[in-house]
Design a protein that fits this description.
homodimer, about 325 residues, alpha+beta, Creatine Amidinohydrolase, Chain A, domain 1, Creatine Amidinohydrolase, 2 domains, four-stranded mixed beta sheet, three-stranded antiparallel beta sheet
Chain lengths: ~325, ~325
Amino acid sequence: MVEAGRATLFTDNRYTVQAWAEVHGAEVEITGKSSLVAAGARLASLRGRVRAGFAPEQVTVQQSTVVSQAAGKRVRWTPVAGAVEGLRGVKDAGEIAMIREAAILAGRVWVSVLKLVKPGVTEIELAAEIEYGMRMGGATGPAFDTIVASGPRAALPHGRASAKPLEKNELVVFDLGAILRGYCSDITRTVYLGRAPRKIKGWYAAVLEAQEAARAAVKSGVTAGEVDAAARRVLERRRLGKRFTHSTGHGLGIEVHEAPRLARGDQSRLAAGNVITIEPGVYIEGTGGIRIEDDVWVQDGGAETLSQARRELLEL
Amino acid sequence: MVEAGRATLFTDNRYTVQAWAEVHGAEVEITGKSSLVAAGARLASLRGRVRAGFAPEQVTVQQSTVVSQAAGKRVRWTPVAGAVEGLRGVKDAGEIAMIREAAILAGRVWVSVLKLVKPGVTEIELAAEIEYGMRMGGATGPAFDTIVASGPRAALPHGRASAKPLEKNELVVFDLGAILRGYCSDITRTVYLGRAPRKIKGWYAAVLEAQEAARAAVKSGVTAGEVDAAARRVLERRRLGKRFTHSTGHGLGIEVHEAPRLARGDQSRLAAGNVITIEPGVYIEGTGGIRIEDDVWVQDGGAETLSQARRELLEL
């Protein structure tokens, strides 16, 4: 944005055709060299006082140096963290429809690979089947590297799929999402290979109860921290509070992680039209982990869960 | 690196298990909150003059602000662009073996999907088959979003796979790579659906000649710019110089884009043990594009091409 009401995308000639085809509502300037240098030069050419905002969470120190040197000393730079992301927080009906479709696709694909979940198959093979299924269902790709984490690896909240084969009597966490026409989904389901011992059934029930409590707490006007607390309270009551090592969820849209963050004590208020994940989990080092995640549309007075796959513990 | 000879990885408790399992040669400090704050605090606790380097091409302005505030005014910060990447430029024999395996896998998978390349199949379906094949071949995933670009879309050097179905009498560009045990490959092949017109055969021959000329120019001691010039000279002689809108290649390793960059006029010298891509291309807006890319191991007095799939024009 170099003048009030006018937007320009600066890009280089690798993207000429794509920019003309895909950019709406902004001018396109194709530059022979660095688009940062071109953007800086444009700012330098403006008359009067020039103040430029930038996204400090996106721009590297190097990029910042290049663009501000090109703009010269007359341009004053102001970091405006979250400004662009904030514009995307409230989704319109068309965006909700696309996230819903992406969420349903992810759930359907997860259900379709359950028949392959047995001892001997590797985590990578299952991840490959999931990503293949999402693409065949119309996705342009996965929204992130699909997580399939079994046995002790399920204790890694961010463990990607590995070459480890599944074994009998293990928990298996699936965390997957699709990008469908530009919008992301993000769901998690956990299954047990074999007959689950009573202890694991107890953990699973606690996570599910926490997840339902958090989903029930969602409506416009509540703080992100209140939704997080609803999940955390259930797990603390079951003496699992310390096993829940991450936040309850995050916004979702054209990026898989957007504002708001549903972290402990977060005071930002949910608004009708936000789409957020609700994903409490417990992680027991050496044994495994359990996480259940759905995508939820914040509304006035309540919420609607967009993802649909069943949540009860499956013993396969 | 907070003291000479000692390295510490600061990370948070989401990564506890993974850090202990995967980090070698460094201490691990798990922090309850931001790892940047913890790293800054450690620097602040050191005695004497403290100078800290950081990677300005990796660190965002926001991260830089957080860590430097935590470290306080006594710590002096110096951007050291490319320092970490530079350490990785020369690969040892084990690393070469892994890149070779990843390159051969990518080529094999590309050959295996050729039987599916016919009018009506969509770009996304082919990309899904390719990524599925790479994973079933042992890859932890694709090294980047697989490009399948057909017809006019082939004129987009960075066009991802779309829902467009392939049509008769089109060029189709495949740009794919696998991550195998942490190392990336990156190859490109272009085919024609139908009998290629003479003009397209001419363009293809020019790109192949440019690619071979650039590969023949590779050896330790030459500059990156000389290799780029070898490809560019061939295309300029064929009046296609302006159609070659990007650089000739880039380094390859644990990241798919590493130093060195094989750009016009680049004065950095290739060293034995570098692994680089050689990927000239021509792009004709409205018609399509042709790119041929291989992974090349720089040696004293020459080079070895690690990727193996055939390079002659296939008319399918």
